[in-house]
Amino acid sequence: MGLPPWAEVGPERRAHIERVAALLAEWAAAMAVGPEERARWRRAAYLHDALRDASLTNPRAHGPAAADRAAAEGERDRGVLDAVRYHTIGYAGWDDVGRMLYLADFLEPGRDPDVAARDALAARVTAERDAVLREVARRRIAWVLRSGWPLPPETVAFWNALACS
Fold it and tell me: What is the pTM of this model?
């Protein structure tokens, strides 16, 4: 699977999606993830930002919009749809595909700020996924707080689930 035909992405977004998919493939190989789960990770990678460049009223709604469109187009895997829907905010109910997409979206090598720290975290994912997941969530939440945006209830529940595990 690559980008769906209904995707609305420019060249920069397409490159980001490709880097996310490549990082997930690298981690899947290192973690000896089976072919069915690898396919789920790949679908989530190509769907997560498929509508990021669409003209939406709320740019933070691109995940839910992409999940809804993917479901309408035949995606039936609840884990993949939840991964796409909540990839920017976190979700306590995720299975592995959601957790891995959340990490790859943040840690892909094309992200500019603090490249060395991102690379170091990405290198630890295969051995220390849950610890890295907590650190990535902490960084993402800190960014939202600095921006002055409210924390969505899903983010609070996600953080609480991570903190209690």
Answer: 0.95
